[in-house]
Amino acid sequence: MTTLASVPPITAAAPAPAAEPPARFGDLLASEWIKTRSLRSTPWTLAFVMLFVIGSSAAASLAEYYNIGKISPDARTDQGFLVFDAYSPAGYMTLMLVAGSIGALAVVSEYGSGLIRTTTVAVPARGSVVLAKAAVVAAVWTVVGTVISIGSFTVSQAILNGRHAGVSFSQHGVLRAVVASALLAPVCAVIGVGLGVLIRHSAATMTTTAFTLLMLQPMFSDSKRWSADVNHMMVVTAWKRLLEYWEPGPDRLGYTATVPGSWIVLALWPFVAIVLALVVVRRRDV
Amino acid sequence: MIEVNELTKMYGGKTAVDQLSFTVQPGQVTGFLGPNGAGKTTTLRMILGLDTPTGGTATVSGVPFPSHPRGLRHVGALLDAGHVHGGRTAAAHLTALARSNGIPLRRVEEVLQEVGLTEAARRRIGGFSLGMKQRLGIATTLLGDPPVLMFDEPINGMDPEGVLWVRHLFRRLAAEGRTVFLSSHLMSEMEQTADQLVVIGQGRLIAAESVRSFAARSTRLSVVVGTPQAAELTVLLTAAGASVEPEGSAGAERLAVTGLPADRIGALAFEHRILLHELTTRSASLEEAFMELTAGSVEYLAGRPR
Q: Can you say how many angstroms the Cα of residue A220 is from the centroid of all Cα atoms in its chain?
């Protein structure tokens, strides 16, 4: 090692680091929450997606409302919970896309701006930063997802009640649909966080998130065993299966996913995404 | 104190930093000097644990910096003033960082005041000038009141008043006993700010010594002589083995003499009754010393320690 030649005597003693409090994960959660809250786009995006998804449920329910009106009262049968009116796939696939993108953005915006380097110097424990980001993103989207899910249900049943086709919260199948739909957003958002850490580049991350969450699923069908197996591992398939409260009839073509299997799929995707992110973030240069 | 030992970084087949060893002492400002692409930023990134070294070690206050779960109380580092999110306010940016390290939030107000950004605290960083972003970056380094501070090209984009301010700040931080490590490719800036220098070129150490002794390395020491009898003196000095170059304008001619020290020139002029108006030893600037030392790879080797 080389020491400097002609070092003048040090007059002042080097200050010792200030008494350091223990490193608390809660501090990182608070920090990530401040980052989320301090972006002007956050409340706007959340408000917009809430309105859009609940609005799509209202639109689907209104269409049903007029359709029922065309059927003569004698021909009507009680169809129970009209689940795809409350949870319109178009609205909820948009929700998946937005939640996945915003989750990814929480990470790639830091890589894109270089802020991640400032963050990493402040918190060299990189894995803890990823976990804190995932936790805050999950918490925010669980709240948003719950509001949207209950909102969708309430609005659609209010409309359908006009034709006496609404159901109450205690109806068979309702609770599972509400919970699965509430969890859809945080699941997709956390997958976005994981993909953001893995890919880091904004455009590539957005494309991959959209592809993984939505575009991949239609490539697989239920008619062949292997294809059905892959299909049943998709987030969107799992969510739709959890909405179906009826038992698959004997006349159903193709294979059907199981309910516990679908819950596991919803849990496994974000889990695997974050585990991979934690492995990779420690190895790569920032 | 920063200790770098045999630090090496290779990107693919290219060696960015090559077995670099040096020590940065507390209590003084140490300049980290080298042309663009010399490996300064890569070295700083390895010290901070952002890049994993291919070989060697770097420690801050005796331990590798990334071994700390929270960093701001140990090292304040400004790598690039652009490493911020333009959508946040200066206050929000600093608050998030302070919070992550359990630093009391009143520190945010203090450091904003220190760097003169109190007025701009509630404005979005995206609208800041580069000079303001540099100030914000410096505020970030001060948050944890750390004993070691590192700055990568902190002067870029600052107005003259800002440059003066930042020089005083660095000197004060060093006087408080902190380690201040400052990279730049501007040698003139180092001459004004630094006590010590670590000079690298092509990823290798060229020199690690005081600014004064680095400048004295230059062989092009010259003496400026002002005389009304320039022609006579030129003959005398040339005969004595010096090389003489006339400079200055007509009526105020001067001679730039190399190869003879000032006292010999004065004695020669006195012996021959030549009137001198001026006799000044001109020490080579840091710029010149640097140019000479980095002129070729042979001199890289000559400049290496051991």
A: 22
